[in-house]
TrEMBL record:
Protein name, UniProt field: ABC transporter ATP-binding protein
Species in which this protein is naturally found: Nitratireductor aestuarii
Domain ABC transporter: residue ranges: 24-256
Highest classification ranks of the organism: Bacteria, Pseudomonadati, Pseudomonadota, Alphaproteobacteria, Hyphomicrobiales
SMART domains according to UniProt: AAA
GO molecular function (one): ATP binding
PANTHER family: ABC TRANSPORTER ATP-BINDING PROTEIN, CONSERVED COMPONENT OF ABC TRANSPORTER FOR NATURAL AMINO ACIDS-RELATED
Record carries keyword Magnesium: no
Key words of the record: ATP-binding, Nucleotide-binding, Transport
One term under GO cellular component: plasma membrane
Amino acid sequence: MAIDILMSNEKVSPARAVAAASAISCAKLSKSFGGLHALRDVTFQIAPGEILGILGPNGAGKTTFINVLSGMLHADSGTVHIYDDDVSAMSMAHRARYGLFRTFQNSRSSEELTGYELLRLASLTPNKTKSSKTYTPDELLEIFGLKRFAGIILSDLPYGIQKMMNLAAVALCRPKVLLLDEPFQGVAEAEIERLSKVIRHFASEGVAVGLVEHNVRSVMRLCNRVIVLDAGAMIFEGRGEDAVRDPVVQTAYLGQRFAGELNG
Ligand SMILES: Nc1ncnc2c1ncn2[C@@H]1O[C@H](COP(=O)(O)OP(=O)(O)OP(=O)(O)O)[C@@H](O)[C@H]1O
Ligand SMILES: [Mg+2]
């Protein structure tokens, strides 16, 4: 689809060409809550198969960014494209049909469902884009190493396992773009390793991943490229190792755990 657009004789505007070459792209995205500018003119793209790290201190606007990209909140201005489709005016459910899925920062389960039942439900999700690989719930449980937990009610599972089960359910929806809001928070070290492998697995199949995380070490391991938000604005885009040496980024994080995590 992207290639069709880039190779056709039809004149393509530069903004549309960038959108088409990316799995997800946004241009000049802004969102305010009253007088608070939570997101200011953010422009970025994620390529198919790329894992992009999204960093920033507490309150920087990372969750707002995911909320606006996924359609949970509508932006005040700016555009969002999934491949060459403009989804800016679409609801979250409608964007999901284009292959855009997200997970939540605090996703403790309250449903009286077992993991297996959750995955069966997720496998029924309609999706306009059928090109990404389709898995059965059993295959996904195997990939995530969750088989032994599948028959247990979600709310009875440890928090880290609940988060992995939710991510497995999202993976069943054949995502083309996955936006993950702090997937490692509250997850044990061994499970972080397993989760990282799963994220790499989906990226290797062409899924574009946006990874919001405070666990900088894991971001460095998984991502070639990161962006850094501060007070709603993008203050850095580039390689993770350059981000941590950047004086503007260091100032934004001053007093936070960032430097300690990297040096510790
Ligand atoms: N629904 C809302 N109504 C009013 N203000 C909000 C709302 N959602 C977020 N904010 C404010 O917008 C700013 C950005 O919040 P956001 O949750 O996006 O930050 P974050 O980078 O995800 O932070 P954290 O690392 O703590 O998760 C904060 O000042 C927050 O208080
Ligand atoms: Mg957040």
